[in-house]
């Protein structure tokens, strides 16, 4: 299918609602991390912004869409600001619903891996590269957040429920759909829902990815 | 006002003196961090370079000015080298005047938030985005320095005098000046001086930004 | 010499074999770090990819070659995947030959500092800037790996054999060769071999770079 159509499977309004929802939930996750690390209000805002927008900015720099989309639309900037303000005042309440936050974050993951892969296709990248950029869009902001907050990135840790695999599956589904000419608003939504459900199930069931072969008995305590 | 004029409010020579001054003081701060962390001479040079040039390189990648300005002019590269050499031999003396260094660093902060915002405007970005990139120019190099040296970035910590807020104020002043057509060499200088004075006052008075609502009594010890 | 010829000193096939060799050994080093840090299989793959491709991606973003070369050729993506799989199953054997890995890593260092510098020249950068980007290509991926794994980057530590200096010498040799019109397949190979041998000798002899003047007696214990 023609590249320019790949990105426009949703109407502009639907796309924007989806984007802003994903940005909002990622920003809440970033702001909560800042509160837990005892950062000040500036740290809360900065961590909300980079968590929500970081993955997309890296993707856009790599595909050559400059300035990145995050710099095109004021809504992209102000949504994390709003999320940061909410967390600043209501963090005890937000912490109490942190299982709910995990669900929202899973929604952001599902959404971003699909839209990220689609955008990379729209800029002419091949299916494997587009998949890689879909994963980057979904997990990149969280990785920057963890590096700035001096945490081991969640996506590398074996003692956390799998995070990258659902994004990989969602992105790969999009690649298959585009390559077979079946990518449209319905199949894209299905791919996002599948990645979302995969992540929620992984959280619920405590699914983890294996560590290196014959390494399971050792405890290193690297994650304190 | 026409974008191309925004960046050219100073004569080329004045602009270069200001840029190199900011780069020099940021490089000294980076080199000092490397000495304190016991890095070798290569680490001192690398940390001086990324501290001095990192913020501007990120800005230029985002606005699409490639290769970044830091790669255009040999002075941009050699100034941090010179600063690193100075610190290598004279670090005890430099440490002794570290309050003076803080003053110089504040000058770099004031200068870079103004020139960074102006350059983003010159590349067609809107006022909010240009402000964000002005802040990035001013604080980005220091953030990379802290990440490489495995420190919690100063700009996130509540137990440090405010650093990002003066840059934000300086950048926002530039945005207002440009939008109202009042941006020129005099008002730009005034904005830089205001951000500089704000930072120096914050250092002198120990101004800090608030942490999240109702979180002030807890001590977490995350910053050791 | 004309820029476009600088990058084409080797035949396409030779160039590709050299590139993939460098990518493979860097990926093995990244995957081994992930195993040592007890990351899961996803962490092993991600760390292999960023270690192998990170330096080149930064170089390509800075010179404006987007999408970066790593996104052009499927071999660039699949080689680290293969290396990660190998380390996943054979890590005890690979650890046992870690001196051999160090030799391979030195080969990657020698190769990448030469090809990175040549590519920067081909995109019109000056000799000093091209040298800086050659060093970035050689050491950038390892720096990202260390930051993600929450290690102090090897290239900053005084208690490690010199790593950046051989890359600097190799890159500077290329710059001199290009500027004097003597850059060709033979001299380029010689520069890469020189950087490689320099690094191997540094490992063998335990060469270290000096720390700041009069700082040698202090022990800070920052590297645990």
UniProtKB/TrEMBL annotation, chains A, B, C:
Alphabetized UniProt keyword annotations: Cell membrane, Membrane, Transmembrane, Transmembrane helix
Domain Glycine transporter, residue spans: 17-91, 103-177
Localization per record: Cell membrane
Protein's UniProt keywords contain Cell membrane: yes
InterPro entries: Gly_transporter
A Pfam family: Gly_transporter
Membrane topology (UniProt): Multi-pass membrane protein
Main location: membrane
Keyword Phosphoprotein among record annotations: no
Transmembrane segments: 17-35, 42-62, 74-91, 103-122, 128-148, 160-178, 184-202
The organism's place on the tree of life at top rank: Bacteria
Similarity comment: Belongs to the UPF0126 family.
Protein name: Trimeric intracellular cation channel family protein
Higher taxonomy: Bacteria, Bacillati, Actinomycetota, Actinomycetes, Kitasatosporales
């Amino acid at each position: 299918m023609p590249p320019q159509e790949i990105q426009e499977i949703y109407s502009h309004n639907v796309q924007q609602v989806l984007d802003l929802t994903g940005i909002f939930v990622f920003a809440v996750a970033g702001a909560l991390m800042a509160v837990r690390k005892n950062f000040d209000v500036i740290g809360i805002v900065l961590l909300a912004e980079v968590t929500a927008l970081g993955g997309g900015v890296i993707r856009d720099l790599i595909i050559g869409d400059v300035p990145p989309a995050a710099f095109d639309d004021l809504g992209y900037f102000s949504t994390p600001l709003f999320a940061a303000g909410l967390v600043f005042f209501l963090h005890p309440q937000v912490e109490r619903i942190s299982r709910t936050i995990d669900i929202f974050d899973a929604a952001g993951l599902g959404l971003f891996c699909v839209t990220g892969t689609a955008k990379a296709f729209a800029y002419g990248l091949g299916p494997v590269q587009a998949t890689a950029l879909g994963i980057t869009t979904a997990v990149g902001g969280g990785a920057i957040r963890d590096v700035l907050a001096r945490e081991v990135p969640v996506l590398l840790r074996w003692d956390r429920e799998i995070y990258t695999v659902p994004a990989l599956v969602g992105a790969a589904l999009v690649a298959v759909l585009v390559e077979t000419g079946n990518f449209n608003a319905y199949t894209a939504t299905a791919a996002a829902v599948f990645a979302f459900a995969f992540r929620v199930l992984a959280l619920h069931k405590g699914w983890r990815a294996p560590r290196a072969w014959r390494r399971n008995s050792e405890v290193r305590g690297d994650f304190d």
